[in-house]
Amino acid sequence: MPLKALKTVLDIEPYKGGESKLAGFAKPIKLASNENPLGCSPAAREAAAAALARTELYPDGAAPELKDAIAHRYGLDPDRIVCGAGSDEIFQLLLRAYVAEGDEIVQSQYAFLMYRIFARPMGAVVRTAANDGLRADVDGLLAQVTDKTRIVFLDNPNNPTGTYLPFEEVRRLHAGLPDSVMLVIDAAYAEYVERNDYSAGVDLVSAFDNVVMTRTFSKVHGLAALRVGWSYCPRPVADALNKVRLPFNVSTPAQAAAAAAMADGAFVDQSLRHNARELARVRDAIRAMGYEVADSVGNFVLVRFASPQAAGAADAHFRKHGYIVRAVGAYGLPDCLRITIGTVEQNTGMLDVLGALPRS
């Protein structure tokens, strides 16, 4: 009998990242992966370049300078911070440390795809709660929790919808969970949220032993290529994650760049101002064309078309003109496209292309 991978692995539908190449275009406009159109902090780029002078040395797996930079920025205990190769790795570590075969995870209807992808090789059952429209539903999530549930994942804000749960709703979700269930708040887009009723989750992590918050340097900090994420955890959780993570999981250039990025508040402020202006302009312009656009608090918009076929035609129309946007059928939204907020020029060009789309 030939050697085969585990069925739990073979059954996985692999994650497909946003494309970056387009036939016929040397430099297509990529608005598919929610990347920062302003790049990254110059200080971060310089720090990464300087760290390349030490490529013969292993990185410090404890990432002390990076954790200190994060702790200083947010007023946190550095011993409760765990860093990873993107927040994706943090999700994988949590599942490895807390979920066994036959256990369950709970997520919302349009949750980030990596939760289920990482859970299935563990032999875990993925339970999905229907949304309230495009927003996660607290009562629905709680109804999916059983005595086999180990983790509830909440991406807040959500990708791909751009919606969010106010802090009181997140607190209500946590209050409804048994102490034996961990609430993981994926706050990858937290920096972009300009709502008074939103919190990334630090307060809950500080107050309870079964809440973890994850963050990333891939979005507002513009370090997607370097793969750096971090989590704030109860001490026992941090200890467990450090036991199962790879010993050198975040490279030296990545650590150096992320620490410098965390200290460069001016670049973050510039990125947030740009996103706030352009998000409103793009959203309002697309709505004026007659399309439904979700009230996104992230750095992207979700646009709904008349049908899955119409969304596919729009995607092809964008590609014909050198623009790459994101089809989100894998999330259960086949009639939608997700469009990243780019530079002023990129956004204007995208709107022109969309405005020229033939309408039946």
Describe the structure.
It is a single chain. This protein is of the alpha/beta class and 360 residues long. The chain folds into 2 domains: 7-39 and 266-355, Aspartate Aminotransferase, domain 1; 42-264, Aspartate Aminotransferase, domain 2 (3-Layer(aba) Sandwich), CATH 3.40.640. It is built from 13 helices and 13 strands. The protein has helices at 7-10, 42-51, 64-74, 86-98, 114-119, 138-143, 167-175, 202-207, 235-244, 252-263, 265-288, 308-320, 344-355; strands at residues 29-30, 81-84, 104-108, 125-129, 149-155, 182-186, 211-216, 229-232, 292-293, 300-304, 323-324, 326-327, 336-340. The strands form 3 sheets. Strands 2-8-7-6-5-3-4 form a 7-stranded mixed beta sheet, sandwiched between helices. Helix 2 (42-51) runs antiparallel to helix 10 and helix 4 packs across helix 9 (235-244). The longest helix has 24 residues, at 265-288. The radius of gyration is 20 Å and the shape is globular.
